[in-house]
Amino acid sequence: MKQRIITGLIFGAIVLGLVFTNLWSRTIFLLLLGILISIEYTNITKFSKLEILASSMVVGLISIGLFLQYVELKYVIILCIITNLLLAINLFIKNPFLKHDKFKSIILSTYIILPLIMAFLNQWHTSNNHLLISTLILVWVADSGAYFVGTRLGKRKILPRISPGKSWEGFLGAGMLTIIVGYLLSSIFNTGGLKYWLYISIVVWALGLIGDLIASHVKRIHQVKDSGGLLPGHGGFYDRFDAYIYVIPFVILTHQLYFI
């Protein structure tokens, strides 16, 4: 646990330093994060060169369409959310399509890469930089709350066949802490008011758990314990940001719906 805390503090300080500094540092952060998570994910799932090429083409075409405004962001959000919901359903079926090679490229594109591109577009083309920063903070708060409460009080397991360490007690502890921090963020960022931040906090808390479970599911299917070893006590970047990439589309959707 000591190693986990030390790594978390050092790595968290570096990431928040990049995110808070300026637009370019945030862009570099998202770019590096996408590359590192993609490498880890393709290693876990044993991508072939053809599958990597197919995934790159999917991401490239949609990204170019977004940048040139040939493709509306709302359609990409819908695509990502549909993929995420299918991945959530996979947690409860006997023969998940995560096992089928023909879906690998689609999953990598819409589950991992496109959410990070949407976060990039959101902070580059709008004044909503708070979404990138606050989502990071809330995800980490929820993860820390679930870990510390779960390790001490956790008895009722959520999905033990997929992730034996996750408990309902940890989930509730994460929720309480996330909502408290959401309340604090409402006084820091001048956007939306308290109700807005409660919505964002609840989305991150509830759906972040699903993101964690999906990552555990991917690793369990491919018989891998951690996605990497670059973050001692945490594993790899996919291990650390699994909830973040899952909740991004839902956070952006919540933001847009709130201000309609």
The overall pLDDT average reads 81
The number of domains: 1
Query: Strand share of the residues?
Result: under 5%
Number of helices: 9
Instruction: Specify Rg, calculated over alpha carbons.
Output: 18 Å
Taking the sheet with the most strands, its summary is:
none
**Structural class from helices and strands?**
mainly alpha
Quaternary structure: single chain
Number of strands: 0
Contiguous low-pLDDT stretches (5 residues minimum) are: none
User: What separation lies between the terminal Cα atoms?
Assistant: 44 Å
Shape: globular
Task: Work out the helicity level.
Answer: over 70%
Helix-strand sequence:
HHHHHHHHH
Question: Which tags fit this structure?
Answer:
9 helices; 260 residues; mainly alpha; single chain
